[in-house]
Fold this sequence. Notes:
mainly alpha
Amino acid sequence: MVEAKPNSIKIAGIIIIVISVFTILLNLIGGGIILFLSDLKDSSYSNIDSLNNEHSYTGVIIGIAILMTFIGILLLFSGLNILKYKMWANRLATFISIFYIVYMWVVMWWISFYLMNDPNNEIDAMNYWGLFTAILWTVPAVILIWFLNIKNIKRHFDG
């Protein structure tokens, strides 16, 4: 008799798909808005290495949006194949989640560091915004890693 596969795996796959679609759409929209609002007519990037230059911030934000869109596409591909119980999709989702945790903490640390050193930052609570955001987004990724690697769940995936 064939053992029934748990519905929790399908639910996890659907959640991954929904989150990945939101990640893709929001980063494409956000990157598009930044490009639209930035002054791209001025192509003089003589001070691009300076973090005090608006062009360098635009480049960093666009880079983050592109990377997050790529992560979203990989997650979407992984989520669709988790619905098919593919082991490689389980491993891909686990790897992406680990990468995402590290990436989130690095970016949020950088943002917090910038806010603490910004003389125009008048709200001290904003210094901790990056930490709060990193914790908020790390928890679901850790839960996903944990869930996908439970022995009872992992054994239902096909090699």
